[in-house]
Predict the 3D structure of the following.
Amino acid sequence: MLPQVLLHHGLFPTAPSQPHMAVSIELLEFYQALFEQSCDAINALALALKMHYSCRGFVMMDTQVSYS
């Protein structure tokens, strides 16, 4: 019962029964994105953050922002 409640609230239990801790599913998705892009640490982090926020509807801009 408790694992289903945790999953419903976006948390992944650390044990199948009687979990004492849970990890955010969003954090696990971010870790997966980072792992998939891990050839170069700095570029991997930047790309993983971009993917993470883009999937959530945020628009990323660089220094060449246009206000037209």
